[in-house]
Design goal:
heterodimer, A: 254 residues, mainly alpha, globular, B: alpha/beta, Rossmann fold, Alpha-Beta Plaits, 2 domains, 4-stranded antiparallel β-sheet, 13 strands, 33% helix, 30% strand
């Protein structure tokens, strides 16, 4: 499985789409620096926001786009059949794919973190402590959740549909916390019931308090980000398990 | 067949899956029965859509049987695959384009949990055997279709599997590549390994196969040795040679097709071959070539399929 994860990571990294995503993310960090000097409010904050958004958004895009197409592409190309005829279970195949994706996501976030940290720390004298980097780890955790969900959906659905559904869950995961808190103010009756139910049933990025902003700006203590990481890891495990179950059960027809 | 000698046993196998927007159920295999012996080479022959690839995918556990039983090397397909005793090459192998030839085979080695040195040694041996030496450090995306096909066969051979299942191994190969695969088949046969493959390229299987399995409409319609089948279909022989002929001394049923300046060609009925050769030897004739008069295996198979339909 580690070898499969490495092959998967290498394959993603060799794709033009990956470079396009990384380039746009870098441009966004550069734009932050450029406009930061003329920002109406704190330039340091502006650079920080652009950098954080860049790492988070493009990390998630990578996870969703590549995660959704991973299994269908392998089946279409025929490489899945070649591997699954060796002593590799279908669950091992899916898990290997997930870890490859996670590795790429982590490399992308790290790759973006270095120029971001340089600009933020050296040019704008921002705080570059361990918590700063741990915040990025939380981002990796979030893209792990989205990547595993996209992968799970890709085991029985088309890549397009998988991307759409994952983005839908991503939006819910991001906006669920405020919606659930104010559920009692929702006028439509059935939605008043559905929103809290979704709040409990889907991953909720809102309760992951220790994101990069919270760690750096608010200085959230260690147990909080550890719990946040654990929460994200559990959701990833749930989706990988779902992917394994659906992939184990289905007929493999090209 | 005695238990323990069977490589594959299929009994009343039905395999169906849902296709299209409305999920219409389609049965690709409809009560297939088959027993394949260990150590032999079998070719699965049939028109497109006959069920050959479905049968192969079911043997490997990619498709689940709807009804019936299937035993591979005495166990369930999944068990046989996970034990590493099977080597498989799909019709379009779709190798990883960014890996080189050696890395591709090393990937198979790592899945089989071979040690790094063992895997490398095996991989290099296979690369040589498949005529890919000198290309092992090139990325697969730079390989021709035939080279990719040969590399995929190498992938299936890593770990020295007992049973090899190849789906259309000759497709996309040029005559040289086909020659390499034919030789490989002969070597595998001499090593006592079981080989099951589907093909549409009939001339290549005459020599290499112990038995042909004819599949049509999801059923095994017959199973026979190609050599015996061809022998049965032989009507007579064309003999060509040198030396003086005494036409009256050959018998009434032997037809002289050509006779000039010491060279001759004769058409001999099937039952008279031995006797004619004896007579020619007595006359001092030297036989140069002997060709059977019969339809090609391809024509015979088409005829059999049409009769079945």
């Amino acid at each position: 499985m580690p070898r499969l994860a490495l092959v998967t990571a290498k394959e993603i990294i060799r794709q033009k789409l990956f470079y396009a995503i990384a380039l746009v993310a870098l441009v966004l960090i550069g734009v932050g620096v450029l406009f930061g000097t003329s920002a109406l409010y704190d330039p340091k904050r502006f650079v920080y926001d652009a950098g954080q958004a860049s790492m988070y958004l493009f990390g998630c895009f990578t996870a969703i786009l590549f995660g959704a197409s991973m299994v269908p592409k392998e089946l279409e190309r025929g490489s899945a059949y070649l591997l699954l005829a060796k002593p590799l279970s279908r669950s091992g195949f899916v898990t290997g794919k997930f870890f490859g994706l996670l590795l790429v996501g982590a490399l992308l976030v790290l790759g973006l973190l270095i120029p971001f940290a340089l600009v933020y720390g050296l040019v704008y004298q921002g705080t570059l402590n361990a918590a700063f980097f741990l915040g990025a780890l939380i981002d990796v955790g979030k893209l792990g959740v989205l990547g595993s969900l996209a992968l799970a959906l890709g085991t029985f659905s088309t890549p397009t549909l998988s991307v759409m559904l994952t983005v839908f869950v991503w939006l819910i995961a991001t906006g669920l916390e405020p919606a659930a808190t104010s559920a009692r103010f929702i006028e439509i009756g059935w939605m008043r019931a559905v929103v809290p139910a979704l709040y409990r049933a889907l991953p909720n990025f809102g309760i992951v308090a220790a994101d990069l902003e919270a760690v750096v700006v608010l200085g959230v203590p260690c147990p909080v980000w550890l719990l946040s990481l654990l929460y994200l890891a559990l959701w990833s495990a749930v989706f990988v398990l779902l992917a394994c179950i659906t992939f184990e059960r289905r007929n493999l027809v090209r | 067949m005695r238990a323990g000698l069977e490589a594959i046993r299929v009994a009343k196998l039905w395999v169906g899956f849902r296709v299209g927007f409305w999920g219409k159920r389609l049965f690709a295999l409809q009560g297939m029965n088959l027993e394949l012996e260990k150590g032999k080479t079998y070719a699965l022959i049939g028109p497109n859509g006959a069920g050959k690839s479905t049968l192969i995918k079911t043997m490997l556990g990619f498709l689940k049987p709807t009804k019936g039983t299937l035993a591979i090397l005495g166990g369930l397909p999944k068990e046989a695959v996970l034990s590493g005793k099977i080597g498989y090459t799909p019709e379009n192998p779709g190798l990883y384009p960014h890996l080189n030839g050696l890395e591709t085979l090393m990937l198979a080695g790592s899945l089989l949990k071979l040690g790094k040195i063992t895997a490398r040694t095996q991989a290099m041996r296979l690369i040589e055997r498949l005529g890919l030496l000198g290309h092992e450090t090139r990325e697969v995306k730079g390989y021709s279709k035939g080279m990719q096909q040969r590399l995929a066969l190498g992938f299936s051979l890593m770990g020295t599997p007992e049973l090899l299942i190849w789906d259309e191994p000759m497709s996309g190969l040029d005559p040289i590549g086909r020659g390499v695969v034919r030789n490989l088949m002969a070597e595998l046969k001499s090593e006592g390994r079981t080989l099951v493959f589907s093909t549409h390229i009939i001339p290549d299987i005459e020599e290499s196969c112990d038995a042909l399995v004819l599949i049509d409409k999801g059923k095994n319609i017959s199973e026979f040795s190609p050599k015996a089948f061809l022998d049965e279909s032989t009507r007579g022989y064309i003999l060509k040679g040198l030396g003086q002929l005494a036409p009256n001394g050959l018998g009434a049923d032997v037809r002289v097709l050509e006779a000039q300046e010491g060279g001759w060609a004769l058409e001999v009925p099937k039952g008279l071959l031995g006797e004619t050769i004896n007579r020619l030897t007595q006359m001092g004739g030297a036989i140069e070539t002997l060709e059977p008069i019969r339809p090609s295996l391809e024509e015979l198979l088409v005829d059999r399929f049409l009769n079945h339909a």
